[in-house]
Amino acid sequence: MLGYYPADSLLLIVLTPIAEADAVQVRLVARTDFHVPDDQRSHTLRAAAQVCTRENATAALAVIIDSALIPDPTDLLRAHRRLATDLHRELTAVDVQLASAWATPAIERDAPWWDLLDPGIRGVIADPDASVIAAAQVLEGNPIYRSRAEIAGLVEPDPALLRTVSLLLPSADTLPRCVVDDSVDVVCAMIERLLVHIDAVAAGIPLTAADVAELGMALRDKRVRD
Length: 226
Hints:
The chain is of the alpha+beta class. The chain is 42% helix and 18% strand. The protein has a six-stranded mixed sheet with strand order 2-1-3-4-5-6, covered by helices on one side.
C-alpha cells in the first residue's frame, strides 16, 4: 500500500470499523525509519497513537522491518518485543487495540517473520508480488517499486536535461507574469497534448527536452493545471 517495499522501517497499519458491519478496514499505512535514537523512540510511539486517534481507529497492526535480524535475531527480538509492549501501552491509552505485531528482516519471499505478541509463533513470508493486495494495486495502475530509493530515482532532477530545457524555454524575464490565450480551443489543445504526454510516459516512452519545455509552457496556465 506504500507503493514500495520498505526496509528498516516501523509500519503502523491503522484499522477503522466498517459502518453497519462487524469488520474493520485498512484506513492507512504509516511508515517511519526504524533506526532512530532511543530518545526519539517514545516520541514515535506517541505519534503513532495520535495518528490512530485522528483516524478514529479501533485497532492497529505493527510491523518492524529490521535488516539486522539476520543472522542472529535473538537479542533484537527481545528489544522488539519490548517496543511492541510500549506501543501497546500507548495505543491502549487512546482506546486502540494493538491486534498484532510482527518483525522481519525484509519484505521478500521466504524472509522469516516472528510474532512479537506471541513468541511461539513464527513463519516465512510468501511471495509479496503474488499477494492479492499487490495484484489489486497493479490492476489499478499503481506499480509497486522495490524500494524508496527506486521511487526517489524517478523524480531525481536530470542536470543535463534541465540545461537543455532551459535553452528551449524563453527567459522568464521576457514573459509577462500572466499571459494566457483566452481561446477555449487553445486551452483544450494544450490539455490534449498534456494527456498525450502522460499516456506516453505511462507506456514507458521517455519525454524529450522539447516535450518537457512544451509541458512547462502549457502548465503556466492555471486552467491547464486544474
